[in-house]
């Protein structure tokens, strides 16, 4: 099976030796997104809710570049530096996704790139 990289200017460029996503057949593996503004490369805000919203904006942009949408997610992994922000993840996911919701993991970590509060990745299946 071939692996095809997915890239878009509507999400932050990769800051290392990885692709924004890889498509293998009808499955797309989205790399972790942090709350960077794709136009400036800067963190959008110190506000955690704004950071979470930007992470999901970035995931959606990559999903669209792959020919789908975040609604095609079958698994989302969320990394938070403080699990107290977990209710905000639920709130934003409920606003942006429809049932059936994807499987999900939420993991508290000690630190994330650039000192942000949240990062998320996803796996999509696009029919």
Description:
With 127 residues, the protein is of the alpha+beta class. It has one domain (3-125): 60s Ribosomal Protein L30, Chain: A (2-Layer Sandwich), CATH 3.30.1330. Helix content is 23%, strand content 29%. It contains two helices and six strands, in the order E-E-E-H-E-H-E-E. It has helices at 48-65, 86-96; strands at residues 3-6, 21-24, 27-33, 73-80, 103-108, 118-125. The chain has a six-stranded mixed β-sheet with strand order 1-2-3-6-4-5, with helices on one face. Helix 1 (48-65) packs across helix 2 (86-96). The model has no long low-confidence stretch (mean pLDDT 97).
Summarize the structure.
The protein contains two helices and six strands. It has 127 residues and is α+β, with helices and mostly antiparallel strands.
Features:
23% helix, 6 strands, 127 residues, alpha+beta, 60s Ribosomal Protein L30, Chain: A, globular
Strand order, largest beta sheet: 1-2-3-6-4-5
- Oligomeric status of the shown chains? single chain
DSSP helical segment count: 2
The backbone outline, from C-alpha atoms, is globular
Tell me the layout of helices and strands.
Layout: E1 3-6, E2 21-24, E3 27-33, H1 48-65, E4 73-80, H2 86-96, E5 103-108, E6 118-125
Parallel strand pairs: 4-5
Antiparallel strand pairs: 1-2, 2-3, 3-6, 4-6
Helix pairs in contact: 1-2
């Amino acid at each position: 099976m071939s692996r095809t990289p997915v890239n878009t200017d509507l999400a932050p460029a990769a800051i290392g030796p990885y692709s924004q996503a890889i498509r293998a057949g009808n499955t797309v593996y989205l790399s972790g997104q942090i709350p960077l503004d794709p136009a400036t490369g800067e963190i959008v805000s110190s506000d955690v809710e704004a950071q979470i919203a930007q992470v999901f904006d970035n995931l959606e942009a990559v999903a669209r570049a792959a020919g789908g949408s975040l609604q095609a997610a079958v698994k989302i992994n969320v990394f938070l530096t403080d699990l107290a922000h977990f209710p905000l993840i639920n709130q934003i996911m409920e606003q942006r996704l429809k049932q059936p919701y994807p499987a999900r993991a939420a993991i508290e970590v000690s630190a994330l790139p650039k000192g942000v509060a949240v990062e998320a990745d996803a796996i999509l299946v696009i029919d």
